[in-house]
Automatic annotation (TrEMBL):
Protein name: GcrA cell cycle regulator
Organism phylogeny: Bacteria, Pseudomonadati, Pseudomonadota, Alphaproteobacteria, Hyphomicrobiales
UniProt region (Disordered), positions on chain: 65-84
Length: 84
């Protein structure tokens, strides 16, 4: 299996068939970001990897191992331990 690397494309050079996930801050680039640029399926805006990252919260459940807090809501981040 071949791993495709980020191409880091500025907004102006991004084509319809390339991933539009903002992968890196670039203050000098138009829009302020460089985008992934990996190939995408027809009708999609993100590559497989970035689509999975963006959908984690929507398809998450306790059965899939996503941590929940005591109120039953999804825990989207963990709080740092400030006791030290």
């Amino acid at each position: 299996m071949t791993t495709l690397r980020l191409r880091l494309i500025p907004l102006r050079e991004l084509r319809l068939d390339e991933c539009k996930y903002p992968a890196k801050d670039a203050p000098t680039a138009i829009g302020g970001y460089l985008f992934c640029g990996r190939p995408v399926k027809s009708g999609e805006i993100y590559c497989r990897k970035h689509k999975a990252i963006c959908q984690q919260g929507r398809i998450a459940s306790p059965a899939r191992g996503i941590p929940y807090n005591r109120s039953g809501r999804k825990q989207l981040y963990s709080r740092p331990d400030l006791s030290e």
